[in-house]
Amino acid sequence: MIAVRVATAADEPGILSVWGEAFGEPDMAPRWRLDPNRRSWTLVAVEGADLVGALYLVDQRRRTATGRLARVLGLANVAVAGRARGRGLARALTDEAVAFGRRAGYDWSLLFTDTPGVYAPSGYRAFAQRRVRRGTVLTGRSAAGRPSGVRSGGAELLGLPGVAALHDGADERPLTAVRDELGWRRALSWYADTRVHVLGGPGGSPRAYAVTRLGAAPALLEAAGDRSGLAVLGDLVRADLLGAGAVAVSVELPPGEPYDDLVGRVVADPAAVADDTGMFHPLDTDPEVVRATLDHPRAFHWTGDYL
User: Fold this and answer.
1) Cα–Cα 20 to 30 A to 269, which of 6, 47, 104, 306?
2) What is the DSSP string of 117-132?
């Protein structure tokens, strides 16, 4: 007899074992452990003493098309042990998450997946995202020299005073998450092993920043600031990419201002890439209201806010 319940401390080894088998992602467990209340936000499927499935719930606030903040329940790390697959456990976990979201008064639920058929029976609906462009890294231009007032390093620079305010204050797009303390800690985890540039402004407060992932899958992941400040950082980002041998790069920034000057200094002819991994489930909000947010032309979801 399978039961779905909230996790306990004794369940942690079983949870990590199921996730390790299903995903094999080394950063998953550390990211989960960032949440001091993680067990209270984790559902498990058990058969007697055998833990055979797990799902992590993420509490977020996301902006809507009308400008209000919606309570959004994210579903992350949904997994079932191989020995128990084919018995409807993923649906049982997902259905319990939906029931919890309704009891707790969430507006809607959100998840990202490459297997939408797993979640459709529980009432989740797919939506398309306009969040990725791909292009060739520009060559043949020489930078004007390193601008003054720039600090460069790893993701720890995103913890500098004023960076969070720069991001939160400048970004009011529908679908965008408003990061609380845990949200920023999770974002820094997603941006581990990135290259970050922060441009200082008057009085030393940050004026702009940019986050770039180098290596096997180069990407410009996040940026915020005023138009001219972002443009200043463009040459530094391009130099990072060329120095790492990147030929093509994914741009995971919203189209339009204030980002176009930054992108124009980095990428030649970026082309949109389809992203249909998002799914939503209306809970305490009319489905058409949720759709208005997801389908809004300025809707955007940052990489650092994945679940």
Assistant:
1) 306
2) GGTGGGT-EEEEE---
What domains, with CATH codes, occur in the chain?
2-130+275-305 (3.40.630.30), 133-154+194-272 (no CATH)
Q: How far apart are CA 122 and CA 288, in angstroms?
A: 18
Give the C-alpha separation, 229 to 94, whole Å: 44
Which token pair is 154?
């790893």
Instruction: Give the whole-angstrom CA distance, residue 227 versus residue 20.
Output: 42
Q: How many CB atoms lie within 10 A of CB 281?
A: 23
Summarised one tens digit per residue, pLDDT across range 52-92 is 999 999 999 999 999 899 999 999 999 999 999 999 999 99
- Specify the 3-state DSSP secondary structure of 72: strand
> pTM score, two decimals?
0.93
Cis peptide before 258 (omega within 30 of 0): yes
